[in-house]
TrEMBL record, chain A:
GO terms for biological process: aerobic electron transport chain. It holds the Pfam family Cyt_bd_oxida_I. This is Cytochrome bd-I ubiquinol oxidase subunit 1 apoprotein. It comes from Nonlabens xylanidelens. GO terms for cellular component: cytochrome complex; plasma membrane. It is a multi-pass membrane protein. It comes from the Bacteria. GO terms for molecular function: electron transfer activity; heme binding; metal ion binding; oxidoreductase activity, acting on diphenols and related substances as donors, oxygen as acceptor. The keyword Ribosomal protein does not apply.
From TrEMBL, chain B:
It comes from Nonlabens xylanidelens. Keywords: Cell membrane, Electron transport, Heme, Iron, Membrane, Metal-binding, Transmembrane, Transmembrane helix, Transport. It is a multi-pass membrane protein. GO terms for molecular function: electron transfer activity; metal ion binding; oxidoreductase activity, acting on diphenols and related substances as donors, oxygen as acceptor. One of its GO terms (cellular component) is cytochrome complex. It is found in: Cell membrane. This is Cytochrome bd-I ubiquinol oxidase subunit 2 apoprotein. The keyword Transmembrane applies.
């Protein structure tokens, strides 16, 4: 295989694996901050038990997130050296800001969060929880800013030619607030909140089904359900706003998302379907003119299709972009339905009576994870063939001096190490869940003793 | 070119990156160094204490690597891209070892089984040792220069070229320096049997350091072209190796007086002086080309735009005090000897 493909596989694999963890940390961080805040406000020890329990799972998630994240920071240089030279002036400053303003904050307070229970006052501990949570949110900001700049470059000019060409920043804030960054930051945050809250929902649904830790599980479930409902609903808004931006800034990506080929015609909205890139046909269930309506509020308004772009300037994997995008949307819709129905039952006072619903929640932990992954795959594959939209092609961006054997070597190592790491993660989280927040074998009412 | 206090922006950024990597070497130096002693402790409890000595701190110490890497990428993208792609294999190994090391810290004490703990102990020991060694190897390679052609294209060997004799010597020097630093740090954080064992180990570590340092220095003076010229130009910089030597010579005295914190300061100073020596030796070059000096990566041809450097220098002015504040708060909270409790690893 050639170097470019291997470099892309390696990047996709390492970033997709990495992206299991930070969203979980951000989401669990939010719930943990709410729980600990409630503990400080009410003095109810049950919230402390919950905080301490989720902190243990947070610790593993965060740790793996950091470890796999460092690799990403250096992989730009090892595998994408041409790209790194091209964007360093811009991308680099976002990464540096991430380290200085976000990662520094979360990593230092992490020590106090994890090991400080017996050393600092509850208020200082709560403060540390908030700082770690904010730090992880800021991290997301800078990373998404950097990626958004690749999608919709702004605040820069290109200097030099050929090998020496590179983007230089002309307006820092225009670079930071490039056309897609705000929508995408919010969308990514919300995806992260959903990943975390659905893990909390899943674990406590499992406890409720087993009749374990019933009282605290009900509390945790309600907190997370409230957050999950608000977020999944508002996720729809940021998603819509994001798609509107794609329509303006990356028309080829939008066209690929709905398999729209005709140069300029009203575009349909598919519920699901299959794109044949050769015949340029989509088979599936659709709302005719639906995409036109979503973008222009008019079913007849034409939308630029893939054929408006030269063959070598449109995404190669149209069907993949289409599928990933639709899986994300379907999951989002399902989560809205699920949380709204659960809220309705909560209002009726029968939330915990329906076993089948708790079972769905127990398994739903996978859904936001899948949506986060496929959402990013749609965004990144839809950007192709560009690594910097409209300026630098992916097949020009990789390290020319690195051989395919070197990448194969590192890719195999990553596969082995990450597989082991993933198994360890599952094993150890599973063990912590099975063990539970406190030792139940003793009198459950006396759990406070074991805090 | 824009300047601040009469110093141009690339030079200022060179200082920033240098400070960040020095901070990384000093702080993660004792983390990695402590880990490189791991199998020298026989009891399970000693090993657990050793890990928990760095427990609350290592994540924060690692920040220096992350910011340093970001600063290099942001300020000297050409250097970042050229060095990492040319040193592909050592950096990939380094990164994977970092992952293994973090996993060992997290998972080692989570199970009681002996085989489990022994396996993680071995992984922890090997990853720390090799990380320290590889950092030195990369530094050795940078000092020696890369086979860089036009447009910074790397023309050197791909798989094993990074293991030149000089790089290996630099690797051992770094490892031994980190081990010295690590032993002093553990002396500061432990008591009892483990503590007396460390007093003994520290002596071995220092001997290891003095030998590797002497050999590497000799080799540098004899075989690395241009090193002596630099000193002839600026005799004042002879002070740096002498200061480094004096600082390390002060360590045994302070340790015998049980002033471990001061000893740690002095061994950190040794590192700082040596890194200043490296920085002085290279400046304004970042990566010498062994093919033609004209192809070398320098702070000027590698730098980002003046505008970008200006923005980032502002960030540093705002961010550095904040970061210093967090770190002081963290270190104050976990001051004193290790005490294992229910939150420990």
């Amino acid at each position: 295989m050639d170097t470019e493909i291997l470099a892309r596989i390696q990047f996709a694999f390492t970033i997709a694996f990495h992206y299991i963890y930070p969203p979980l940390s951000i989401g669990i961080g939010l719930i943990m901050a709410i729980m600990e805040g409630l503990y400080l406000k009410t003095g109810n020890k049950q919230y402390e038990v919950l905080t301490r329990f989720w902190l243990k799972i947070f610790a593993i998630t965060f740790g793996i997130g950091v470890a796999t994240g460092i690799i990403m920071e250096f992989e730009f240089g090892t595998n994408w050296s041409v790209y790194s030279r091209y964007v360093g002036d811009i991308f680099g400053s976002a990464l540096a800001a991430e380290g200085l303003f976000a990662f520094g904050l979360e990593s230092t307070f992490l020590g106090i969060l994890l090991f400080g229970w017996n050393r600092v006052s509850p208020k200082v501990h709560f403060f540390s929880t908030i700082m770690v949570f904010l730090g992880s949110m800021f991290s997301a900001v800078w990373i998404v800013v950097a990626n958004s700049w690749q999608q919709t470059p702004a605040g820069y000019h290109i200097v030099g030619e050929g090998f020496d060409a590179r983007a230089e920043v002309t307006d820092f804030w225009a670079m930071v607030f490039n056309p897609s960054s705000v929508d995408r930051i919010i969308h990514v945050w919300q995806g992260a909140f959903l990943a975390g809250t659905f893990l909390v929902l899943s674990v406590h649904a499992y406890y409720l089904l087993k009749g374990r830790y019933v009282e605290i599980s009900k509390k945790a479930f309600k907190i997370s359900l409230a957050v999950a409902t608000i977020i999944s609903l508002t996720q729809l808004l940021s998603g819509h706003s994001s798609a509107d931006g794609v329509a303006v800034n990356q028309p080829a990506k939008l066209a690929a998302m709905e398999g729209h080929y005709e140069k300029s015609a009203p575009a349909d909205l598919y519920l699901f379907g299959w794109v044949d890139n050769d015949t340029q046909e989509v088979t599936g269930i659709k709302l005719p003119g639906g995409l036109s309506f979503l973008v222009h509020q008019d079913f007849e308004e034409p939308i630029t299709g893939l054929n408006a772009f030269p063959e070598n300037e449109r995404p190669g994997q149209v069907n993949a972009v289409f599928q990933f995008y639709h899986i994300m949307i379907s999951i989002g819709m399902f989560l809205i339905g699920l949380t709204l129905y659960a809220c309705y039952l909560w209002w009726r006072g029968t939330l915990f009576d329906k076993k089948w619903l708790l079972k769905i929640f127990a398994y739903s932990v996978l859904l936001p994870q899948i949506a986060n992954q496929v959402g990013w795959f749609a965004a990144e594959m839809g950007r192709q063939p560009w690594i910097v939209y409209g300026h630098l092609r992916t097949d020009e961006g990789f390290s020319q001096e690195v051989s395919s054997n070197q990448i194969l070597f590192s890719l195999i190592l990553f596969l082995v190490v990450y597989t082991v790491l993933f198994l360890l993660f599952i094993y150890s989280v599973n063990k912590k869940i099975k063990h539970g927040p406190y030792d139940e074998a003793k009198n459950p009412d006396e759990f406070l003793k074991y805090v | 070119m824009e300047t601040f206090l009469g110093i141009d922006y690339p030079t200022l950024w060179y200082l920033v990156v240098g400070l960040l990597f020095s901070g990384y070497a000093i702080l993660e130096g004792f983390d990695y160094g402590a880990g490189a002693w791991h199998l020298f402790f026989k009891k399970d409890l000693s090993r657990r204490i050793a890990i928990n000595a760095i427990g609350p701190l290592w994540d924060a110490n690692q920040v220096w690597l992350i910011i340093g890497g970001g600063a290099l990428f942001a300020g000297f993208p050409v250097m970042y891209a050229t060095m990492l792609s040319a040193m592909y294999i050592p950096f990939m190994l380094f990164l994977l070892l970092l992952v293994l090391r973090s996993s060992a810290i997290k998972f080692r004490s989570s199970e009681e089984m002996k085989w489990w703990r022994t396996t993680w102990d071995i992984i922890y020991f090997i990853s720390n040792t090799l990380i320290a060694f590889l950092l030195g190897v990369v530094l050795g390679n940078v000092l020696q220069g890369f086979e860089l052609g036009e447009n910074y294209t790397y023309k050197g060997g791909i798989f094993f070229a990074f293991l030149s004799p000089y790089a290996i010597m630099a690797g051992f020097t770094t490892l031994s320096l980190f081990m010295t630093q690590g032993a002093i740090f553990l002396l500061l954080k432990t008591e009892g049997r483990l503590h007396s064992r460390l007093t003994f180990l520290l002596k071995k570590g220092m001997i290891f350091f003095i030998i590797s340092f002497a050999v590497t220095s000799l080799y540098t003076l004899i075989f690395l072209p241009g090193v002596t010229d630099r000193f002839k130009e600026q005799p004042l910089f002879f002070a740096l190796p002498i200061l480094a030597f004096l600082a390390v010579a002060n360590v045994p005295r302070l340790v015998s007086k049980k002033k471990y914190f001061q000893a740690l300061i002095f061994s950190s100073l040794t590192m700082a002086f040596l890194l200043m020596l490296v920085a002085f030796q290279l400046y304004p070059v970042l990566l010498p080309s062994t093919i033609d000096p004209a192809f070398s990566v320098t702070i000027y041809n590698a730098a980002s735009s003046q505008k970008s450097l200006g923005i980032m220098l502002t960030m540093v002015v705002v961010g550095a005090p904040l970061l210093a504040g967090y770190l002081i708060f963290l270190y104050k909270t976990f001051n004193g000897k290790v005490q294992l409790d229910d939150t420990s690893y």
